[in-house]
Amino acid sequence: MTTANFEAAAGKQFTLGSDLSINSLPKVSLHDHLDGGLRPQTIIDLSTELGLDLPAPDAASLGAWFASQSDSGSLVEYLKTFDVTISVMQTPEGLARVAREFVEDLHADGVIYGEVRWAPEQHLTRGLSLDEVVDAVQGGIEDGIAAVAAAGGRIRIGQLVSAMRQNDNGLEIAQLAVRHREHGVVGFDIAGPEDGFPPSRMRTAFDYLAEHYLPTTVHAGEAAGLDSIRSALFDGRTLRLGHGVRLAEDIEVEETAAGDSAGGDSTFVTLGPLAEWVKDRELALELSPTSNLQTGAIAQWGSELVDHPFDLLYQLGFRVTVNTDNRLMSNTTLSRELAILADTFGYDLGDLEVFQLNAAAGSFLPVEDREELANRIVAGFGDA
Fold it and tell me: Which Pfam family, any one, appears in the UniProt record (predicted)?
């Protein structure tokens, strides 16, 4: 995407068919990075206050720069854009503003529950402590929730505290997450370069989290394959897979042509033991279609959305969920992700409802709250 044809997805209306607004449908967001969802104008404002240089002078061209840089086909190159967003998230005021606007933007897109993930260790360059940055983000989240309520809306948000897998300080970040579990934190994650940094490197952190009953979701099956997913499940005790798209490597699809010994066109699907384990335990897959294209996570299957194994996983009964990953970098919203999936695979309103119910079931809320969330989704889709 170039500056010339860039048009921000935020605020755009997406429809199913000719007139049904996807934006207005109740949605659940499980995989959305705080430092990947900034408004371009906010980056400009905060960088001016901090005296930082930016790669573009105004909001439109800056948004276009992010979209262009992120379309590299490489997760490593994709991650480099975060140097810019993280640089303006180093003060309590900056963190609180970004978090508040994050909540407001999710609500504007119809999200009724969201889990926002971020890595506190990346926000310490101006002297803040780990606990101070978590408190600043939580303050911004609460301000955003209050602003939504004041306007007659309703949204709920939980923090997912992430440890950067290359820094080998998982136990410290796990302890941080547990300290704040009564103040907004609902779970733990590990992020950063996946290939070469398996969850097993942070086994002590995951042991600690298990001892304190804090749920985990792990980035796995994006830049690395089945071994990474296996480590997330058995070293990380993960209850969800962050992306998890490469789980499809453990699924064998065989097509037979008419006239062969099978007697006609047939498709045979065989699940490997890892795929079967994930399916049987209904572990949610946090799939992010646009991001998965941009980072090359689906390169072995193709380079277009139609090549994404999303539909294969859905048709086989996996608990697929739809996510944005990084709304700024991918120039997307949850409504847009649903719209392009519906357009590509022919999904209808019932399919979109299933994706939201899957996300509600996979959320880190208490069971009673998950049930209430599911009821809100059913009621909202029923009124559509």
Answer: A_deaminase
- How many domains does one find in the chain? 1
The model's pTM is 0.94
Following CA atoms 230, 234, 239, 243 in sequence, which dihedral angle do they give, to the nearest 10 degrees? -20
Q: Please name the helix (run of DSSP H) or strand (run of DSSP E) that holds residue 349, with its range, or none.
A: helix 349-362
Task: Verify whether residue 77 is a known catalytic residue.
Answer: no
* φ and ψ at residue 256, rounded to 5 degrees: -115, 140
* CATH number for the domain that contains residue 305: 3.20.20.140
Q: CA 85 to CA 225: how far, in whole Å?
A: 28
| DSSP state string for 272-341 | -HHHHHHHHTTPEEEE-HHHHHHTTTTTTT-SSGGGSTHHHHHHTT--EEE--B-TTTTT--HHHHHHHH
Write phi, then psi, for 72 (nearest 5 degrees). -90, -20
How far CA 100 is from CA of 42, 306, 321, 365, in Å, comes to 11, 35, 25, 21
How many angstroms separate the CA atoms of 83 and 168, rounded?
A: 20
Cα–Cα distance, 178 to 119 (Å, whole number): 14
Dist CA 200 CA 43 (whole Å): 36
* CA–CA separation, 42 and 246 (whole Å): 35
Q: Among the options 222, 286, 337, 353, which is catalytic? A: 222
User: Tokens in use for 265?
Assistant: 């066109």
CA distances to 191, 206, 333 from 248, rounded to whole Å, are 21, 25, 25
Spatial distance between the Cα atoms of 207 and 190, rounded to a whole number of angstroms: 14
For the chain, 384 residues long, give each residue's pLDDT as a single digit of tens: 333 355 678 889 999 987 899 999 999 999 999 999 999 999 999 999 999 999 999 999 999 999 888 887 776 777 789 999 999 999 999 999 999 999 999 999 999 999 999 999 999 999 999 999 999 999 999 999 999 999 999 999 999 999 999 999 999 999 999 999 999 999 999 999 999 999 999 999 999 999 999 999 999 999 999 999 999 999 999 999 999 999 999 999 988 766 555 556 788 999 999 999 999 999 999 999 999 999 899 999 999 999 999 999 999 999 999 999 999 999 999 999 999 999 999 999 999 999 999 999 999 999 999 999 999 999 999 998
Distance CA(236)–CA(376), nearest Å, equals 31
Strand, coil or helix: what is 189?
strand
